[in-house]
Write a structure and sequence with these properties.
By secondary structure, the protein is of the alpha+beta class. 26% of the residues lie in helices and 15% in strands. The chain has 13 helices and twelve strands.
């Protein structure tokens, strides 16, 4: 490794220099806790295993100086925030390992010879924290590529460029699908086996390794990741999120029950238990106990009201691919938790990728490619900036579908949605307000933002 490589690798894992982990006794034995400041307060990570920085997660296993931690930073909720990517660019002049042509640039052939060239090449990574995922249209797909509007002139029918946010490598216990398009979720495999395969593919692809990780390295990575739990622990306005009977922070997450289908709304719970729309109960006590008229208490009530809205505000769900079409229902009476049903985690408890329109032509921005696809059987044209799950299954019905991520730890990892199209939680709420005609008041929007930021 070059001296520059050594310096920028150190920059990628700078948090290790100031690691202030502490042991806490919990139901699963000794827990290790980490705390990191963010714009909304403080995030907390709890590990049910001791954190060993010699673990393969922290080591460069490929040829381009990258490690898992390069794109999964603890301070950023174990993914990367756009703001931290910009800091890393400034600190390294664009040579930090995250800035690599194979997937960090808008095109692998981009010019990176000067500082300004690198800034242009890594524009989407700098502004939205997006990594370039290149996938071919599956053989025997039900659709064909008709046209490409690519601002970077760097894609073809042989390989579409899809720009996506790295997903967090924490709270994995609550996952029902691995990757936005579920491509690492293999039929008949356990989630641990899926995480193992994802580590292989990430090392061979993102890190450009010549050989896959060893069995011991894979065990180290998967054991480390599956021991991590992350949530916001302190809110800048409401204070400690586990105060006065609340259950915020990460300390309770290792004990949070989960199994595939645990609270599925369409009858896929293997126990047969009915769906409970009150999927979030973290801040229920604050709605009863907090007193109006005090700044901290008022902020707590706002968070609790936001939780109540998330659980119970009626939504007429229409036009959602993977839900309305799958059930044969033009409209469904639901709430936010119809799709974010995993108790106190917020992803979907079964593998059910959905299309809520984020990649539709109407929401496409000029900095993303636009693909025109034709369904071979019907002749229908679909224009999208990301075909999503369809790039894995080849099915027209899957165009635009992606999974919903775990919602805990949102405050640390802006921007939001798979393509980084929402710069803030307020923009997330605005999107849903428009998309489902919720007619939220200003206070209701603020309460939902407060709740999401406290997760």
């Amino acid at each position: 490794m070059t001296m520059r490589g050594q310096l920028v690798s150190a920059c990628s894992i700078l948090f290790l220099c100031a690691l202030s982990a502490r042991g806490v006794s919990g139901d699963e034995g000794e827990l290790t806790t980490l705390h990191f400041e963010n714009s909304l307060g403080t995030s907390e990570t709890v590990s049910t295993r001791p954190i060993d920085t010699q673990n393969a997660f922290f080591q460069s296993l490929g040829t381009n100086e990258r490690a898992c931690i390069t794109c999964h930073q603890p301070k950023d909720g174990w993914t990367v925030s756009a703001s931290s990517v910009r800091r890393r660019f400034g600190n390294s002049d664009g040579f930090d390992p995250i800035f690599r042509l194979n997937d960090g640039a808008t095109c692998p052939s981009a010019d990176v010879s000067s500082l300004d060239d690198r800034r242009r090449a890594y524009d989407l990574l700098l502004r939205k924290g997006l990594i370039r995922v290149a996938l071919p249209i599956p053989a025997n797909a039900e659709f064909s590529l008709v046209d490409v509007d690519d601002p970077y002139t760097c894609t073809s029918a042989a390989e579409l460029a899809l720009f996506r946010r790295p997903l967090p490598s924490t709270n994995l216990r609550f996952l029902s699908a691995v990757m936005w398009d579920g491509r690492e979720t293999q039929p008949g495999k356990t989630m641990a086996e899926n995480f193992r395969q994802q580590a292989i593919d990430a090392t061979m692809g993102h890190a450009r390794a010549s050989l896959p990780p060893t069995e011991d390295q894979l065990r180290q990575i998967v054991d480390f990741e599956t021991a991590l739990f992350t949530a916001q622990a302190r809110d800048r306005n409401a204070g400690a999120l586990d105060a006065d009977g609340a259950l915020g922070g990460a300390m309770t997450l290792p004990q949070q029950p989960f199994f595939i289908g645990i609270n599925d709304p369409i009858g896929l719970n293997p126990t047969g238990a009915p769906f409970d729309p009150r999927a979030f109960t973290i801040f229920a006590n604050w709605l009863r106990r907090s007193q109006p008229g005090q700044d901290e208490q008022g902020a707590r009530r706002a968070i609790a009201r936001g939780q109540e809205l998330f659980n119970s505000r009626p939504i007429t769900i229409t036009g959602v691919g993977g839900l309305n079409d799958a059930l044969g229902l033009t409209s469904i009476a639901g709430t936010c938790t119809t799709c974010h049903d995993t108790p106190n985690a917020g992803d979907h408890s079964v593998s059910m990728p959905l299309n809520i329109g984020i990649s539709d032509e109407a929401n496409r921005t000029a900095d993303l490619p636009l693909y025109t696809l034709s369904c071979n059987t019907t002749g229908a044209f679909i224009r999208t900036s990301d075909p999503g799950r369809a790039m894995i299954t080849g099915k027209c019905a899957d165009i635009g579908k992606v999974k919903g991520p775990v919602l805990r730890g949102l405050a640390a990892r802006a921007p939001y949605f798979h393509n980084g199209s929402a710069a803030s939680l307020a923009e997330v709420v605005d999107f849903y307000n428009r998309r489902f005609t919720l007619r939220l008041t200003a206070r209701e929007k603020a309460d939902l933002v407060a709740f999401l930021g406290a997760l």
